[in-house]
Amino acid sequence: MTQPLEFIVLSTTRFGESRLVVHTLSRELGRKGLIVSVGKKTPASLFLPLNILEGNVTENPKSDLWSVKGLSAVAPFSGIRGDIRKNTMTLFLSEVLFRALREGAVEDGLYDWAVKSIFTLDDLKSDWTNFPIRFLLEFTTALGFSPSFDDIAPFAGDHIASLEKFLHASFEESMLIPLTGEKRSEILSSLLRYIEFHTELPLKVRSLDVLREIYKV
């Protein structure tokens, strides 16, 4: 059976010479790997982290990997792709989604929240360096374990005061909370430990090191 599907690209894995396994997040299937043939009609640039694509998915009764064809981008995300720091930030955000979500698990409302977050990042013109912190906090809410002060305090270390500000701030206010690059990185590490504890999944997010380099700029 073939069905239309819209999905977010989380990561890719090479599969032979001309195919990729695209690890995706969709409203209907949750996190799922899809097989795609790469060529002139489907260039590798389509599969950048957090791109939102649509295509036709064909189920494979003999494999958990289904194929997808007829791919196109839902939006160009020029605000993200035109800024090297935002573009690099998507590596971190997509890896968190990939590692914190179980294959096939469908969380009600998660996909729509993720799509809204990607468009928000694309639209932000300034004051967006705190975005990953806000993203992780909202992610916990989307997963169903909304952080409270008492719940998050054991993971926050010396940054509990800053995290408390984020917990009570609006989105706009949270983008303006003053932090050094080092503090942002440490807060992100604290939130990853918090998510790891609640999901019971190991979150070895390698791209956090890349994000630390952005915060030095």
Give a written overview of the molecule:
- The protein is of the alpha+beta class and 217 residues long.
- The protein folds into two domains: 2-73, OB fold (Dihydrolipoamide Acetyltransferase, E2P); 78-215, no CATH class.
- 44% of the residues lie in helices and 21% in strands.
- The protein is built from nine helices and five strands; from the N terminus they run βββββααααααααα.
- It has helices spanning 78-81, 84-100, 110-123, 131-143, 149-156, 160-168, 171-174, 181-199, 208-215; strands spanning 2-15, 19-26, 30-37, 52-58, 66-73.
- Strands 1-2-3-5-4 form a five-stranded mixed β-barrel.
- Helix 2 (84-100) packs antiparallel against helix 9 (208-215) and helix 8 runs antiparallel to helix 9.
- The longest helix is centred in the last third of the chain and has 19 residues, at 181-199.
- The termini are far apart.
- The model has no long low-confidence stretch (mean pLDDT 93).
